[in-house]
Amino acid sequence: MDFSYDGILAECKTKMTKCVEFLGDELKGLRTGRASSGLVETVRVDYYGSMTPLGQLAQITTPDAKTIAIKPFDVSQIKAIEKAILAANLGITPNSDGKVIRLSVPPLTEQTRKQMVSKIKDLAETQRIAIRNVRRDANKHAEQAKKDSVLTEDDLKRILSDIQDLTKASEKQVDEVFKVKSAEIMEI
């Protein structure tokens, strides 16, 4: 760990950015009532003994707002892909014609939408907590750098302020991601 002023800030910023990116990645796979390739890209398929993301085994397209089309590169894997989609518990049943798998995305009920928004809120809060933990660790590193005489008293005050600013900015990004996804789910 680099206990310099710039080193502490850079590591703090990197970790907070990863928290926001993680939330975005988690929310990609949530069903919104609208067809999205992100819904199935990360589904793991047993491909000759290794669990492989579906996005690496097939071309995934959305021909219309309610349909996802999956065209496997290896047609012999259609049954394995269907099995993986059913096991992923997405609430969607795959239909296959032997070459292409089609998923019809049913509209969400109001109750389901509210449950999903609640789940998203929990995921967002988990990332806010992770961001605050990163802040705590960065503050500890800054305090240690002050004790080791790497930072001056003025540097310590300035870096603590900068870390707090990064925390606020990252939490704001998490809130924005939450708002966008919630609005997407609640729209009919």
3D structure, described in words:
By secondary structure, the chain is an alpha+beta fold. The chain folds into 2 domains: 5-28 and 109-186, Ribosome-recycling factor (Topoisomerase I, Chain A, domain 4); 37-104, 2-Layer Sandwich (Gyrase A, domain 2), CATH 3.30.1360. It has helices at 5-28, 78-87, 110-147, 153-186, and strands spanning 44-47, 50-53, 58-64, 67-72, 94-96, 101-104. It has a 4-stranded antiparallel beta sheet with strand order 3-4-6-5, with helices on one face. Strands 1-2 form a two-stranded antiparallel ribbon. The longest helix is centred in the last third of the chain and has 38 residues, at 110-147. The protein starts with a helix and ends with a helix. The model has no long low-confidence stretch (mean pLDDT 88).
**CATH class type of the largest domain:** Mainly Alpha
The averaged pLDDT comes out at: 88
H/E element sequence: HEEEEHEEHH
Global Rg: 22 Å
How does the helix and strand content classify structurally?
A: alpha+beta
Which overall shape is indicated by the principal axes computed on the Cα atoms?
A: elongated
CATH architecture of the largest domain: Orthogonal Bundle
Number of helices: 4
Q: Assign the CATH superfamily of the largest domain.
A: Ribosome-recycling factor
Per the CATH scheme, the topology name of the largest domain is Topoisomerase I, Chain A, domain 4
